[in-house]
Amino acid sequence: MRRFKALIIVSCFLSIVSFARATDPSQISARMEVIRRERETLVAEQRRLETELEAVNRESQNLGTAVKSLDATKKKLATDIKITQSKISSTDLSIKSLENTIGDKEAQINVHQNAIKTALRSISGYDTRPLWIDMLASTNFTDAWRDRSQLEGFSGDLGNEVATLRDTKQELSLEKKKKEAARKQIASLNTELTGQKTVVEASQKAKEKLLAETKNKEAEYQKMIAENLARQAQFEKDIYDLESQLKIALDPSLIPEPRHGVFAWPLDSVFITQKFGKTVGAERLYSSGSHNGVDFRASQGTAVKAVLGGVVEGAGNTDEQRGCYSYGRWILIKHGNGLTSIYAHLSASLVSAGQEIEAGQLIGYSGGTPRTFGAGYSTGPHLHLGVFASQGVSVRQFTQSKGCQQVVVPIVDVKAYLDPLAYLPSL
């Protein structure tokens, strides 16, 4: 009878045990709710500033507009930073909540394991002794028989405890995976935050540089724009002459058939300012008479994402060589389907050569404001996206350029240029 009472005590212990937590869950939930409401306000402010910035960027191109755009960009980016910091705080609280849950599960597993061991030892004692011995040892045959009957029922309960232990271990594994995912998200958000701060600093320096170089005079600004256009034309001529000489035999079977949705959009908000191929603007701006990619409207510091997973084939900034005006800051990603994408005129890059990239991953921030570091020959903020047949592109030194002889850039056989819109989602 004493053994059975011990089993009953173990069973009761399993049902009433409680666990200490490092942080009060109600406090975590309350704090997360406060942060969520604050972020909603910030997002509304972000949308308002984006609308104002887009309106400024649609104004005629002059010095005043350029300065207004940089000022508006700085305000918008400051809000972006606050939103990212808010996301980091929320994710950090989520990790604390997960740690509480993990602690509970680990404690439950420990208690269940110990209780099961104790129960098994007690049951083993009964199982190794014949019923007639218990009958003779007991002063009451009825009590002995009842103990044996109740023991059989308790054995069934023990089976349930074993099943619960197994389920708890599975739940623990799931919670640990959630925690690991949250930690990765924290790392990603911190990278994003670093990039945003870099763009803010660059925007401030760009404004100071712009005013210094133009002496705050409209005529000087227009002269600067004209110089950028001339440099753009020269670079386009140099690279077109080189690429026209390439005689790479392309295997059509290695180029995917055009199909919408192969790629995702590189921006959250899509507005195309210049398409691929022979357009009116292309005939005026490019020696080949054809635009080799797609331009998207994007204010300075807009998040740029990979259109598809792949490996960074190269990344650089032609602005690092004085007098070289071309892509500016660029990223080239080779995808596993025979296509390669380039992102140009960036204000910041968050990736490096050889790095594996996931589809939709943040890789940098758009740029293009004249005289900002990484803008290249751009005359206004935007994102340039190009797509090539991978077999026809290589990253190498541009030795045949007058102003960019030491610069490393993607060189593409003219036959390898493809229309990005043929692979992006339908408009």
Automatic annotation (TrEMBL):
UniProt keywords, alphabetically: Coiled coil, Signal
M23ase beta-sheet core domain boundaries: 290-388
Coiled coil location: 32-59, 162-227
Signal peptide residue numbers: 1-22
Alphabetized GO MF terms: metalloendopeptidase activity
Domain of life: Bacteria
Alphabetical list of InterPro entries matching this protein: Cell_wall_metabolism_enzyme, Dup_hybrid_motif, M23ase_b-sheet_dom
Protein name according to UniProt: M23ase beta-sheet core domain-containing protein
